[in-house]
Amino acid sequence: MTQTITVIRGDGIGPEIMDATLLVLAALNVGLNYEEADAGLVALEKHGDLLPQATLDSIKKNKVALKSPLTTPVGGGFSSINVALRRHFDLYANVRPATSFPNTKSRFASGVNLITVRENTEGAYLSEGQSLSEDGEVALSSVRVTRKGSERIVRYAFELAVKTGRKKVTAVHKANIIKSTSGLFLNVAREVAKEYPAIQFEEMIVDNTCMQLVMRPEQFDVIVTTNLFGDILSDLCAGLVGGLGLAPGANIGETGAIFEAVHGSAPDIAGKGLANPCALLLAAAQMLDHVGQPENATRLRNAIVATLEAKDNLTPDLGGTGSTMSFAKAIASRV
Ligand code: NAI
Ligand code: MG
After folding, report:
1. Which residues touch 86 (CB under 8 Å, ≥6 apart)?
2. Ligand 1 pocket test, candidate residues 82, 236, 265, most atoms within 8 A of CB
3. pTM for this one?
4. Which ligand is located closest to the Cα atom of residue 247?
5. Rounded to an integer, what distance in angstroms lies between the CA atom of residue 300 and that of residue 306?
6. Whose CA is nearest to atom 43 of ligand 1?
7. Pocket of ligand 1 (CB under 6 A)
C-alpha cells in the first residue's frame, strides 16, 4: 500500500521551498501520496482556526508530516503553532543534524558532523505559566523539567548514537546555576549514561558549549539538551555549516513524526524565489529514513552534495545566483 504523508505548506518562504522539495521527491520517485493540510496564518485565513481539527486528524492518521515553517508573532499575539503541534502529538525528540557541506559560506567546510537532540515538550517552552503583572513591571515564566521527560530524551540520544554508530553523547546543561530544572536533567542524564558503557558520556555547561562549538565543533558527536538550549545551539550549529538554509530537523514521538527545516518563515525573503530549499530537502531525507526508504534518503543527500560541489544554481545565501526552483531542478537532475 502506498504510504500517505501530510504536507503543510506553511507561510512566508514555506510554499516556495515545499514546491521545490516535492519536485525533487518526484524526481526520486519515492512513491508517496501527499495529503495537504493547513496550519498557522494560512489556516486562520481559510478556516478561521490556526490549527484546524482536520489538520490534526490528518497527521494522526498518516503519522508522518512534512512541514514548512509557520510564522509566530514576536512578543504578543498567538502562541507558536509549531510548539503546539509538537506538544499535541508528544513529539518529544527534536533531532537536528549539522554536517559540513562543500561550497557553503561557512567557517567549517569540513569536520562538522554532529546531531543535536533537543527535548521538545517541556523546559522553558510551556505556554501556560507566562504572565505579566498589571502594572507591566514584572514578567514571570515557569520552567518545568520532569524525570520522565529527561529520561526519554537522553535515552533517545543514546539509542540514536548506538543505531548510527556514533561514539559520544554530550549532555548540555546549566546545573551549576539552575540547580532545580537543569540539575534534574543532568542527574537523569548521568543515570541513563550508565546503561550505555560503550558510548562515551560527557557533560558540558551551556555557555562553554557555545564557545567550544565555535572553536572546535569536530569534538562533538551527539548533543542532548533541554528545549531552550537545544533551540539556540541548533541554530548555532546551522551557522557553523553554512546557515539555516542547510539545517533540517525531525520532531519524533511514539506515535508520529513531523519533519521540517530548523529555520523559520524568513519574511525578509518570502515570495522572491531566493530561499534555499536544502533544509526542507534534508528534512525530507530524514523522513525517507524514517519511512523505511534509506536508499532514497542517501540518493537525495548525495544529489544535494553533488549540486553544491558543482556550484550549480546555488541560492544567494550560498553565494550563488540561482533561485529556489532552479536550485531544486539542479538537485533533481542529479538524483
Ligand atoms: P528565520 O529562520 O525565518 O530567518 C532567519 C534568517 O535566515 C533570515 O535572514 C532569513 O532570510 C534567513 N533564512 C532562513 N531560512 C532561509 C532559507 N531557507 N534560505 C535562505 N535564507 C534563509 O528566523 P526569524 O526571522 O527569526 O523568524 C521568522 C518567523 O519564523 C518567526 O515568526 C518565527 O517564529 C518563525 N519560525 C518558525 C519556525 C518553524 O516553523 N518551525 C522555526 C523558527 C522560526
Ligand atoms: Mg528555533
Report:
1. 94, 120, 121, 251, 258
2. 265
3. 0.94
4. 1
5. 10
6. 264
7. 13, 17, 69-72, 82, 244-245, 260, 263-269, 275-276, 279, 317
- Assess whether pLDDT exceeds 80 at residue 61: yes
Is 125 catalytic? The answer is yes
CB–CB of 202/170 below 8 Å? yes
For 296, the grid coordinates are 532514497
Query: DSSP code of 144?
Result: B
d(CA 329, CA 37): 25
Nearest CA to ligand 1 atom 5: 266
Q: For 65-120, what is each residue's pLDDT tens digit?
A: 999 999 988 877 788 899 899 989 999 999 999 999 988 888 877 889 999 999 99
Tell me, yes or no, if 231 is annotated catalytic.
yes
| Among 67, 92, 125, 235, the one annotated catalytic | 125
The order of strands in the sheet holding 4-8 is 33-36, 4-8, 64-67, 257-261, 248-252, 93-99, 113-119, 222-225, 168-173, 200-205
The Cα–Cα gap between 117 and 96 comes to 6
Q: Which residue in 149, 160, 159 sits closest to 96, CA to CA?
A: 160
φ and ψ of 122, to 5 deg: -135, -135
Question: What is the Cα–Cα distance from 326 to 169, expressed in whole angstroms?
Answer: 39
